[in-house]
Amino acid sequence: MNERLTLDDIRRAPKVLLHDHLDGGLRPETVVDLAREAGYADLPSTDPAALGTWFEEAANSGSLERYLETFSHTVGVMQSAEALTRVAYECAEDLGRDGVVYAEVRFAPELHTRTGLSLEQIVEAVLDGFARGGRDHGIRVGTLVTAMRHQARSMEIAELAVRYRDQGVVGFDIAGAEAGYPPTRHLDAFEYLQRENAHFTIHAGEGFGLPSIWQAIQWCGADRLGHGVRIIDDIELDGDGLPTLGRLASYVRDKRIPLELCPTSNIQTGAAKSIAEHPIGLLRQLDFRVTVNTDNRLMSGTSVSEEFAKLVDAFGYGWDDLQWLTVNAMKSAFISFPERLELINRVIKPGFAELKAEQAD
Q1: Which of 69, 93, 170, 288 has the most CB within a 10 Å radius?
Q2: How does pLDDT run across 79-113, given as a tens digit for each residue?
Q3: What does the record say about how the cofactor binds (predicted)?
């Protein structure tokens, strides 16, 4: 009988991350350092351990809007090129140490202009940090530039995505509170990206339900769904637990539209009640294109390995399940098909094969 995988086991596995926010993954000590350097005096604590605890507790509100308020402090200290480069470098370092071999990390350039940086300077500072961090720590990081859905700069940000797509920006995203800010408000940006053959994902089906998902796919043409956890609302279980998929859920599954699920974050924002009750269990059984992500490593106090470990505990997953989820993510990445295939066949599958062989001995 095989023993259940431990967190240390999982950290050794090659992993892929598609949904991670740069301003949600800072080290607490870095927040304190940058605040001191920038003269930012609004932190709730200048003790790194206490600050890390504060971020997690503030995020555990069950409200997406309250969860998003915690970002005022991380964004507040990321207002210089040097700070942005440092945070991006440390992000690559932290992910590499967690066994992540490919990651797509997103950030909103429009949030970092308070001291006069141009959007181009902001993007270039982040790309520099990811490039150097990736080289030093053996990880490839692709960048997603994000527009805030309650603002009106999505076309500018979409144009940035296209301008820098050969320099490390692999796609575009919109984020922020969903209720009252449907993705169709940014339809011109999505139509532009489609004309430019550019990739994009849309935060949908997290704080709002099926209409958000439907608009993201059918009106805006999203390649992936950021979260998409509320697709479960279009799946009914009968008295025997047998599922019936609605038209939208069937479409999402049939078209293999990737779901960027973030289990811990989904619980914090009220999109799921617990890991054991998280829709990922059923969605995986029904063969949706499920991927596992961190969303905000600081606020959720998590890592990709820890997200996997929670699923192992809740659903009894083994190496085959974790490999399936990882390959799903790699298939869904916004880099070229040959690059995805190379990582799947030369890094991911051999890495899991070695771990399976060790477990069998």
Answers
A1: 288
A2: 999 999 999 999 999 999 999 999 999 999 999 99
A3: Binds 1 zinc ion per subunit.
- pLDDT class of 180 with cuts at 50, 70, 90: confident
Instruction: Say which residue the tokens 């350097």 belong to.
Output: 37
CB neighbourhood size of 255 (10 A): 10
Q: What is the dihedral of CA 131, 136, 139, 144, to 10 degrees?
A: -20
Helices marked H in 138-199? 154-163, 187-195
- pTM given for the model: 0.96
Ranges of H-type helices in the chain: 7-11, 28-38, 48-59, 64-69, 71-76, 81-97, 119-137, 154-163, 187-195, 210-214, 247-254, 263-268, 280-285, 297-300, 304-315, 319-331, 337-343, 349-360
- Quote the percentage of the chain above a pLDDT of 90: 88
- The annotation places the binding site for substrate at 21, 23, 176
Distances (CA, A) of 252 to 20, 175, 226, 249, 256: 22, 20, 13, 5, 6
Annotated binding site for Zn(2+): 19, 21, 203, 295
Place of tokens 């209409």: 211
Q: Do the domain assignments include residue 22? A: yes
Neighbours of 146 (CB within 10 A): 27
Residues annotated as part of the active site:
206
Is residue 1 a part of any domain in this protein?
Answer: no
Q: Is residue 2 part of a domain?
A: no
Counting every residue, how long is the chain? Answer: 361
What are the two backbone dihedrals, phi and then psi, of residue 170, each rounded to the nearest 5 degrees?
Answer: -105, -10
The alpha carbon of residue 234 and the mean position of all alpha carbons in its chain are separated, in whole angstroms, by 23
Range of the domain at 196: 7-360
Strand order in the sheet with 200-204: 15-21, 100-107, 140-148, 169-175, 200-204, 224-227, 259-261, 290-292
> CATH number, domain at 21?
3.20.20.140
Residue 82 forms part of a structural domain: yes
